[in-house]
Amino acid sequence: MTIVMTSEQPHADEFWSGQTELGDRLAKISALMFRAQYAGIWVQDREAKSDVLIGSFNIPANSDMGGFQAPKKFDDFFLFNVTPQILPDHPLVNGKIGDVRTVIFVPINLGHGHVATMSIGCEDEFSSLTTTQTAQLRRWINCVEGLYAKQISIVDMLRRTIELLTR
């Protein structure tokens, strides 16, 4: 499925304003896929230079990624075993949230590029994903991206309808 986001959707950024039930459910399913204890979806607000938690599973609502900004060419997910020196401010890495041993970072891309990062934290340590896990994660992220793109389109359509009705 190809998702095309255009500049004609002026209110798409407002969609990422905070935690939603959809985000929480997507985070929970992501954690359960890997028998993980924690998952969070953060949007990088480049203008405010901060991160907004839009979905979580066992992560407190006020958690941020400690300023973690994914690289601009963040096209694929990556997994690493936790050492606090790697990302000392990230709550899944620095021990503020649970006893996480392995973290999987997954990009969420919508048409114009990388917009969010899903972080999955596991208390078990493992060094790689199986071929099956990799394939499942790719299919799952396609679903997540599709759901977010559709929700943004619906919100934008409703906003435009209200504008037309209130002229």
Pick out its properties.
alpha+beta; Beta-Lactamase; 5-stranded antiparallel sheet; 167 residues; GAF domain-containing protein; 3 helices
Describe what you observe in this structure:
- This is GAF domain-containing protein.
- The protein is an alpha+beta fold and 167 residues long.
- The chain has helices at residues 12-15, 21-33, 131-165; strands at 38-45, 50-57, 78-81, 102-110, 113-122.
- It has a single domain, classed as 2-Layer Sandwich (Beta-Lactamase), CATH 3.30.450.40.
- It is built from 3 helices and 5 strands, in the order ααβββββα.
- It has a 5-stranded antiparallel beta sheet with strand order 2-1-5-4-3.
- The model is unreliable at 1-12 (pLDDT under 50).
Spans of at least 5 consecutive residues with low confidence: 1-12
Number of helices in the DSSP assignment:
3
CATH fold-level name: Beta-Lactamase
Helical proportion, percent range: 25-40%
Strand order of the largest sheet: 2-1-5-4-3
- Count of the domains: 1
- N-to-C terminal Cα separation, in Å? 36 Å
Query: What is the number of strand segments?
Result: 5
Mean pLDDT: 78
Give the SSE string: HHEEEEEH
Percent of residues in β-strands: 15-25%
CATH homologous superfamily identity: GAF domain
Q: What Rg do the Cα atoms give?
A: 16 Å
Q: Mind summarizing the main beta sheet?
A: 5 strands, antiparallel
CATH class: Alpha Beta
The computed structural class is alpha+beta
Organism: Marivivens niveibacter
Protein name: GAF domain-containing protein
